[in-house]
Specification:
- The termini are far apart.
- Helix 2 runs parallel beside helix 10, helix 5 packs across helix 16 and helix 13 packs across helix 15.
- The chain is globular.
- The protein is of the alpha/beta class.
Length: about 625
């Protein structure tokens, strides 16, 4: 493994907690790099040599090695006659990402695109410039290498809803086999096999370590009336410690699951890291035939004989399409980009909105805080373990997830509860914006939890635009949080449910309580009133990191549709988008598992098309 000093400018962006840049922060960060700093391919059993590539010509080019892209590349290369190029803008997956308890440790670092939203005057008001942060993974595995790992698929009603909009082949009945195809669930004895798979590449399991406050939260929700449930089974309403994309106390990203096992073995796969796609090549007949990409400050061209598949995610996929002349005509013309196809690329941007500021304090007997030296010792011990266990092998309270219906007449949940943590809640109240990220400290050590009410069915819609000053730079992200006032209703109802947890036996036995001191931006409102929580929602707005919808799938008559039901870009042959950007509306839950499913569903369309094409070709000959 390659040891190297960590550049604190990479991990101390403007909105990082002050603790991150403290003397202890320096020691802690450098220890992380010394223990885990090498890239994954430095591990002996993951060494690889990419195949010689002289002609730069492939059958398929997959742009983006994230949750969907890794799946697509794996499935395509099962055919030894198909040559596949997988492009990833970031580096190899660093070893530090494998530690569940450090899942937030590198937010804002050089393996995060570190995007921020644009202000709309109704949300993120207490954040600098009215901008919320939007982390996105920039490495092999994409956001599956940096997220909180919860394995949640969404609700049956979501996929049936997609199908009802005119997207044949996307009902729950249609997509369930593709969820199961990828899944290798190691806890199947406690689950209904009708809903779960055990033979796929993607490991799913429970963490070996769940701390006492996390169980307290699950018990409290259960005592409040929510059944203990498998969210991915027959019923979603309920509570439980979520299963995770993990195995034996380590993260299993899609890079780990789908690419590393085949990278040496399949000579028809070429993986290029640090290779950012700049433009899709499209000929005069409106057929995509290649990619221009930048690698180590050198420009290269790769040709695709069959298809270009864009799996760069909900932000970078629409950006690449627009840079290539596919997008809203007026916007592209204003930037001097020749318009090849006028489509609503970048529109329909939305995300699950939530907020911080509801604090559950844990007294000393319940808190998991330890000294700085003990934190360093825990990191060292975890690194030396052959079989990972202990606090860093879990994800703390982040994995305490519950779903409710705020109205019994709803067909599916409209609120999800997620939990953040803070290592010092008193400091958090004094300086919530710089303290809320807690990115430097492991999720295992905290003295308070921040249960967050998440609106699963947001009506607000925004847009992604290219940056006028630098179209190749970070795009302008307008999620338009809370632009539709009705999005506040589930949030308020969810908070009321949360507050009732204080009366449960689980809370009382742990002496846990809600901190009733108002947050700084909302001190003009009385704690506990609707007005106070509306202020929290607008001031301390937070993303759940589930942006979707920017390359909407829909029937041809849908003016906002960019893709057909087989994820083909309207009006441009040989080009598909396969990732979370295709969602007509966001599913009720975390988006990593659905993105993997989209990869499976999308590549199945591709394989069947080309198998049928080849059969027709040889029959004709």
């Amino acid at each position: 493994m390659i040891w190297q000093p960590l550049n604190l400018t990479d991990v101390c962006p403007p909105y990082t907690p002050v603790t991150a840049c403290s003397p202890f922060g320096y020691i802690y960060l450098n220890l992380l790099v010394n223990l885990y700093g090498g890239s994954s391919d430095a591990r002996k059993h993951w060494s690889h040599n990419e195949p010689e590539d002289i002609r730069n010509e492939y059958d398929f080019i997959v742009v983006g090695a994230g949750a969907a892209g890794c799946v697509v590349a794996n499935r395509l290369t099962e055919n030894p006659n198909w040559k596949v190029l997988l492009l990833e803008a970031g580096p190899e997956q660093p070893d530090v990402t494998f530690v569940p308890g450090l899942s937030t440790a590198l937010l804002g670092s050089n393996i995060d695109w570190a995007y921020t939203t644009e202000p709309n005057g109704k949300s993120c008001l207490a954040h600098p410039g009215g901008r919320c942060s939007w982390p996105r993974g920039k490495m092999m595995g994409g956001s599956s290498s940096i997220n909180s790992m919860a394995y949640i698929r969404g609700n049956r009603a979501d996929y049936d809803g997609w199908a009802s909009l005119g997207n044949a082949g996307w009902s729950y009945k249609d997509v369930l086999p593709f969820f199961k195809k990828s899944e290798r669930n190691v806890n199947i004895e406690a689950l209904d096999p009708i809903y779960h798979g055990v033979e796929g590449e993607q490991f799913v399991s429970r963490y070996p370590y769940i701390d006492d406050p996390s169980w307290m939260l699950t018990e409290a929700f259960n005592q409040r009336g929510l059944p203990l449930t498998d969210y991915n089974g027959a019923r979603q309403v309920g509570t439980m410690q979520a299963q995770a994309f993990s195995l034996l106390g380590e993260r299993v990203s899609t890079n780990t699951a789908f690419i590393q096992p085949i990278r040496d073995k399949r000579k028809n796969l070429t993986v290029k890291t640090n290779s950012e796609a700049l433009r899709i090549l499209i000929d005069d007949n409106k057929r995509a035939y290649g990619i221009v990409y930048l690698q180590n400050n050198n420009m290269f061209t790769a040709i695709a004989r069959k298809e270009v598949i864009v799996s760069a995610g909900s932000i970078n996929s629409p950006k690449l399409l627009m840079l290539s002349g596919i997008g809203p005509k007026d916007h592209l013309e204003s930037l001097g980009i020749p318009v090849i196809q006028d489509l609503a690329v970048g529109e329909n941007l939305h995300d699950h909105v939530t907020f911080n500021g509801v604090i559950v304090a844990l007294p000393n007997k319940t808190a998991t805080t330890v000294s700085e030296n003990e934190i360093l010792e825990s990191v060292q011990e975890y690194a030396e373990m052959k079989y990972k266990n202990g606090p860093l092998s879990g994800n703390g309270p982040v994995n305490s997830i519950s779903f409710i219906k705020t109205d019994p007449n709803l067909i599916a949940p409209d609120v999800q509860f997620q939990v953040n943590h803070v290592s010092n809640w008193r400091q958090f109240i004094q300086d919530p914006i710089t303290a809320e990220s807690v990115a430097i400290f492991p999720t295992a050590f905290y003295d308070a939890v921040l249960p967050r009410t998440m609106n699963l069915v947001p009506k607000s819609r925004g847009v992604l635009l290219l940056n006028e000053s630098d179209p190749n730079g970070p795009p302008l992200l307008y999620p338009n949080y809370l632009s539709d006032d009705s999005d506040l209703i589930p949030l308020l109802k969810g908070v009321r449910f949360l507050l009732s947890l204080e009366n449960t036996k689980a809370f009382r036995s742990h002496s846990a309580y809600f901190v009733r001191e108002p947050m700084p931006a909302c001190r003009n409102y009385e704690w506990g009133t609707d007005e106070y929580y509306i202020c929290l929602a607008k001031s301390y707005t937070s993303s759940t990191y589930h942006p979707v919808g920017t390359c909407k799938m829909g029937p041809k008559w849908d003016e906002k549709a960019v893709l057909d039901n087989q994820l083909r870009v309207y009006g441009v042959a040989g080009l598909r988008v396969v990732d979370a950007s295709i969602m007509p509306f966001v599913i009720r839950g975390n988006t990593n598992a659905p993105s993997i499913m989209i990869g499976e569903r999308g590549v199945d369309f591709i394989i069947k098309y080309w198998n049928k094409y080849n059969q027709a070709y040889y029959s004709y000959k």
